Amino acid sequence: MDIDGHKGRVLPWLLAALFYVGFTIAQTWPLVTRLAVVIPHDPGDPILNAWIVWWNAHAVPFTAAWWNAPAFWPSNGALAFSEVLLGLAPITTPVQWLGGSPITAYNVAFLLTFPLSALAAHALVYRLTGRHTAAFIGGLVYGFNPFRVAHFPQIQVMASYWMPVALLGLHEYLAHHRRRWLVLFGVAWLMQALSNGYYMLFFPVLVGVWILWFAGSRRTARAVGEIVAAWAIASIPLIPLLWSYRRIHSAFSFQRDLGEVNRFGADVTSLLDASPLMKFWTLRSFHQPEGELFPGVTAALLVLALVIHVCWRSERVMRVPRVARLLLAAAAVFVGIGLSSLLLGGWAITVGNVTLLSVRVASKPLSIGVMLLAGALLLIPRFPDAWRRRSPLMFYALAMGLMYWLCMGPRPHLLGAPFMARGPYSLLMLLPGYDSIRVPARFAMLAALCLSVVAALSFARLTSRMSRMPRLILAAVVACGVLADSAIGEMPLRALPLRLASLESLPGRAPVVELPMGFSGDDLAAMYRGMYHQRPVLNGYSGFFPPSYDVLRLGFALRDPQMFDVLTARSPMIVVVDTARDPEGQWAKQVAARPGATLERVEAGRKVFSLAAGSWPEEVIVPSLPIRSVTANINADRMPLVLDGNLDTCWDSGAQLGAENVTIDLGSTRAVEGVTMTLGSHPLDFPRTLVIESSEDGLRWTARWQGSPAAVAFAAAIRHPKQMPLFFELPKVAARMIRLRQVGHDPNFHWLIFELAVHGR
Fold it and tell me: pTM of the prediction?
């Protein structure tokens, strides 16, 4: 039976869908039999995403309550610290409403990412070729690409099935000008944007170049206008989402460092880096985080076979212009010079004292070589001809190259060394939103989509003159090759964290803190248990962390008992202490010693306490006093920076060794009531143990405040997370001079002061 002959019929689609589902089950076995009791790959991001899926089924989207998800209490806007995964809700929410657990819902959505992505790519290729054999190959390449295996923990990366549907809608609309295809495009775009914030920013790049290629002419100007209008209308629901993200991130000063973005850009050699889960391809020589971009051998061979075929025919039917050949030769020279610098290091050619040629870095010659190559290709007749014909094959081939190029981030690297001063991704970072994401390498999913189309179109082109049986046999061989490229050795499945019946049975809604905190496994387990006891938890795990969490984690690690005081000032608390990881029972003793503390139960090696509400000093607004001078016994030349009103400059003590002093001279005796020390964007760089002293003459000093500032820093992080002003209330005292003495030790974190103020009358 020639399935290519059944155009428009259900059977080929049904057979393809059954195969995609069957291979998914086989590939991930035995996950389908244990949906409620295991999590795929690891208990890291999957637990976080299952928690988000749970919350989406229990709160109304876009409301204040939805944004204030019950983690990182008492910080607001916790859902905006990571992805919202609303695009998965049509799958995961009904599963939970029908009685399934959040883990079951997550696993169902995880499994469906494979066949849905394959079917979507199948539909796109079938639209372009009219052949199910080619479409089936495209579906396999996209739905089971090795890049997906590398991202088993990130379901938002795997949920990429709406992108082929959106492109299908665009192709159909441009061909038939029926509005229903615009609706399909708009819905697919919106659902993809709601599934993954990366694709919300990355997919418009592919759509933009699609419009330029297929609709970049006068006769299609009206169609472009309607596409853009449909795109804009479909994006309206994203406005409140993006506005809230921006508002919450601005409140916490969340942003990505350029160095971090560069670090998570792929290397050219990442194309030879595959996940260790792969069964047949154990490529790890060039491994780097987020760098497993291996596309699969079979798809690459299909593309290579087509290139050889086209070049062979081109040699017969057309001549390459002389200018193009010169540019190609020049490109080869510059690329060779750049590669020599990478392999041999910098070099120079000198005659006497005259340097004729000097190459210190590879980026400049390689950049010139790439530009010359692009110019040469544009001059070869086949490329302008493909542009005039709006060739889908040429478009998806060029788009694939662009997507892989963007994977490499702001400064593309080869073997760890930059070969371009700036890549095209650096231009994207000038646009709003791109500075808040850190992994350019995830452009690889869009590259995989383009690769699947190019591989399928290559197969269709190469087999266009074959009869039915040889074509089917070759399709089966290619499909087996793709399946071998995609196969994994064993599906990693992990047990779920323990549930604590004592937390689920305790009355009330008091927030829960589980100790120790600060380790991802512990915090994720606390969030998992939170899905069942349904109380706010102070623990948390996400893409961003609020400063209050960082301070709280450090305060508990320092065993500062005041952390319990500052927490119970807001609410009664439930404290869970893992006794096996509580040296000498110090946390348990601190909790038990508090007035009104009750040991509720000991379960699974954990003590569960309830704490009554307490109190903590309110923030007091007291006028600032003029400061005559500030001196320090370390880095004294930087002390003027603490009075310049600029939160981007600071005094820095270096490592805290226990002998750092800062002395403030008010110029005359005043009634002093407090001191404010601003930490800005460095919530953990406070003095480990602080003594605040006052003096009227600079000779006799009296201690007015002493202890760990961790609880004060936590209160500041909750009230003013962007500025972090630590206010130390002092007993009202007459003083001319105030001295801050750091007497603790911390070799890792410095003592920083961005701004300093003394308050009084």
Answer: 0.89
Q: Do residues 342 and 359 touch, judged by C-beta distance below 8 A?
A: no
Task: Determine contact, residues 311/346, Cβ cutoff 8 Å.
Answer: no
Q: What are the tens digits of pLDDT across the range 661-709?
A: 999 999 999 999 999 999 998 999 999 999 999 999 989 999 999 999 9
**Contact yes or no for 207/166 (Cβ under 8 A):** yes
Q: ω into residue 683 within 30 of 0, thus cis?
A: no
pLDDT for residue 377: 65
Residue 575 to residue 555: CA distance in whole angstroms:
15
Closest CA to 394 of 314, 319, 453, 459: 453
Residue 138 host element (H or E): helix 132-143
- Identity of the amino acid at 23: F
In contact, 742 and 689? CB cutoff 8 Å? yes
* Partners of 726 in the β-ladder: 677
Nearest-5° Cα angle at 157, 495 to 412 = 125
641-661 burial: b if 16+ Cβ within 10 Å, else e: bbbeeebeebbebeebeeebb
Q: Are 487 and 280 spatial neighbours (Cβ–Cβ below 8 Å)?
A: yes
What 3-state class would DSSP assign to 386?
helix
What is the greatest pairwise CA distance in the chain? 102
What would the pLDDT profile of 32-77 be if each residue is shown by its tens digit?
Answer: 999 999 999 988 899 999 999 999 999 999 999 999 999 999 999 9
Rg, C-alpha atoms of the chain: 31
Please state the φ and ψ torsions of residue 470, each to the nearest 5 degrees: -60, -35
Which tokens belong to 676?
Answer: 């404010």
Quick: pLDDT tens for 530-585: 999 999 999 999 989 999 999 999 999 999 999 999 999 989 999 999 999 998 99
Integer angstrom CA distances of residue 283 from 279, 342, 446: 11, 22, 22
